[in-house]
Fold this sequence. Notes:
Layout: E1 2-15, E2 19-20, E3 24-26, E4 31-46, E5 50-51, E6 55-57, E7 68-79, E8 88-90, E9 94-95, E10 103-112, E11 123-126, E12 130-131, E13 137-140, E14 142-148, E15 154-157, E16 161-162, E17 168-171, E18 174-176
Amino acid sequence: VEDKETNLKISGGTFDGFVIGGGAAAGTGNTSTVGTSNLIIKGGIFNSNIYAGGAALESGKGKNDIGTVSVSNSNLIIDGTDATKENLNFSGAIYAGGLDSGISEKITLTLKNLTQDMFKSKGGIYGGSKGSTEGALVKDGDIEINISNSHIYADILGGGGAFGKSSKVKAKNTKIT
């Protein structure tokens, strides 16, 4: 699957599974390519992780049977301007990058008008991608994080997170304002 751009705007609803802003591919030989992924969140109850980029997934046939995802740019905006804790709430981690797939050029994360009570637990907000499978090597390009008028109950990390055995996540440059 190949898309020049993906645009997803969420203004409400309950999400028990993870949210993917870009493409996804499950299993060896399956690919997804996205030029720019745009994910805007203005409302919703999120009970799992959010990935603004793509997701390379296992097919269930074995731990090395994983798809290939390529996303050039990822933009994630979380805007609490018109929200309350009842209609915008997070209990999982937030990644401006992808799941077991990096963003090759630029990631931009914008957080604005968020309050502490919108976060059910002290989770993580990552400017980059997540490496979750064993031996994953995830590479992100430049990362920019912009935070305004917010009181956030979360750890904010400029890069990504490596959680799989022997996995690595690398980023070029990170800027937080």
